[in-house]
Amino acid sequence: MDKRNHIAIFDLGKTNQKVVLIDGRDLTKIDSRKAPNSVLKGLYPHLDTASQWRFLCDCLSGFEQQHGVDGVAITTHGATAALVVGDTLALPVLDYEFELPRSVDEAYNTLRPPFDETLSPRLPGGLNIGAQLYFLQTRFPKEFSRTEHILTYPQYWSFRLTGLAHSEATSLGCHTDLWQPEMGRFSNLVGRILPEKLFPPLAKASDVFPLTSTAAQATGLRAGIPVTCGIHDSNASLVPWLNSGDPLSIVSSGTWTIVMSLGVPLGEMDAGRDMLANVDALGRPTPTARFMGGRDHELLTKGCVGSASLSDIAAVISKGVFIMPGRVPGVGPFPQASGGWRGAPPVGMAEKLASATLYLALMTQTCLALAGMGQRIILEGPLARNEPFARCLSALTGVAVHMSADATGTATGAALLLLKADHDPRLGPAVQPVDLPGLSAYAQNWRAYAQQAR
Are the CB atoms for 179 and 173 separated by under 8 Å? Predict the structure, then answer.
C-alpha cells in the first residue's frame, strides 16, 4: 500500500458504532466519531441499518473534507446476517438478542450440525446465525425466497460500499453453525437446510474491492478507493499478534469479553460452557471462551463513575462480597447460573465498582483456563484501561498481563488488513500483580460458589 496514508475504519459494535481515521504510516489515530446503536421494533427486533448507514456516510464525508481518506476498512460484531435482494434488504437485520419462538428453537435444535463438526455451541436467542436464518426461512418464506445473498455483517457493509457480495471465514466461524473451523468449509447446514446458492464466494478479510461511484456520492469519498471485505471484530483484535510466535492470550473487551488463545491447541472444547473455535484472519481455528463482561459491568455498576481502588477491592475481599455469574442468562462459562450474591451485597459506589472488578477478573480467569492460557495475556478494548482489573487478573493467573497501549483496539487490526504490512504492536511492560491479603482464598471460594450454580 504505497501512499494510502489515511485509513477510515467502520468499527460497528453491538452497543456503539464508531468511525476511526488512522494514519497508515504509524497507526496513530487522527480522528474518531462515535454514536450509540438502536434496535427497532416491527416484524421482530431489528438493527437500525438506515441510521448506521447515515452515520457512516456522515463520518466518511467529514473525514474526507477535513483530512482526506485513502481507504476504508470494516469490522463489526458477529452473530448477525443480512438477507439481500438487489441492493436492498429482503428482511430487516434481526437483532441477535431476540428470543426466538420456542417452536422454532426446538425444531432448529433437531436440525443443527453437531458440536464436533462446527465447534459452535447452541446459544440463546439468535446468537447462532443458523437459528436466525431458520426462523426467517420458516416464518417469512415469501421474503426469504426473494433473497439473493446471505451476508454476514462485515460483508454486508462492504457490499454497501463496493456492490460486491462475499462470504468470509472469521464471521462464518463466529458460532454460526454454518462453518467447520477445522476443515475450513461450510457445515452441512448449508445445502441441507439453507440453499448453498445464497452464500456468495469466499473472500479473505484482507481482500480489497473498489468503492462504487454510487457509494462515493453518498460518502463524499473518491470512487475506486479500496474497501476491505471486512472482519469479525474480536478477530480484528488478533490481527496485530498473528505472527507473534510464543503462545499468548488476547482478551478482547466491549459488550462481550472474549478470550482467544493463539498458538494454543484446541484441546477439549466444552459446548456447555460457551466455548467455541473462532477463526482467525489466516483461517486457523482459535480456542475461545467468553462472557458478556461489558453488559455485566453495566448492570452491576449502573450509576457509578470511575474505577475501583485497590483499597476498596481489599475491603470487598475482607467483607466477603461475592458477585455470582448469570445476570445475562444462557451465556458464558456458567450459562445455567442465575446471578445474585453470596455474602452481603455491596453498599455504595466504591463497593459496587470493587466487587464488579473482582468479578470480571475471576470470570476472565475462568475463560482463560478453559481456552488455554498463553505465556502472556494482552488486554484490548475498555479493560485495557482498567489497571485494577489488570493487576487482579495477573495475580489470579500468575501470568504476565499487558494493557494494550493501542487506544483504537479492533480498528487497528482492521486497518492492518488493508495496509498488508507488518506491524510491531505497541506493548508496554506487564502490570504489577496485586498483593492483597485473602485474594487467593476469596478466589477459591468464588469458584466453589460458581460451580454450585452451574
Answer: yes
Q: Which of 10, 31, 82, 3 is nearest to 230 (CA)?
A: 10
Cβ-Cβ contacts under 8 Å for 369 (sequence gap 6 or more) = none
Nearest-angstrom CA–CA distance, 344 and 152: 45
Residue 233, amino acid: D
Element housing 186 (H / E): strand 185-186
Give yes or no for a contact between 443 and 415, defined as CB atoms under 8 angstroms apart.
no
Superfamily holding 242-452:
ATPase, nucleotide binding domain (3.30.420.40)
Q: Provide the grid cell at 388.
A: 485494577
Cα separation of 220 and 213, whole Å? Answer: 10
CA distance linking residue 169 with residue 397, whole number of Å: 31
Task: Compute the C-alpha angle 182/184/187, nearest 5°.
Answer: 90
Q: Which residues contact 46 (CB under 8 A, 6 or more apart)?
A: 39, 40, 92, 93, 94, 95
d(Cα 373, Cα 364) in Å, to the nearest integer? 11
Q: How many angstroms from the chain centroid is the CA of residue 46?
A: 18
Structure confidence by residue, pLDDT tens digits, 414-436: 999 998 766 666 677 999 999 99
Q: How far apart are the first and last CA of the chain?
A: 50
Segments making up each domain of the chain, as ranges = 6-229, 242-452
Q: What is the pLDDT of residues 50-68, one digit of tens each?
A: 999 999 999 999 999 999 9
Please give the Cα distance from 78 to 173 (Å, whole number): 9
**Scanning the structure block, which residue is given the C-alpha cell 473462532?**
278
Fold of 6-229: Nucleotidyltransferase; domain 5 (3.30.420)
Virtual torsion, Cα 357, 358, 360, 363, nearest 10 deg = 180
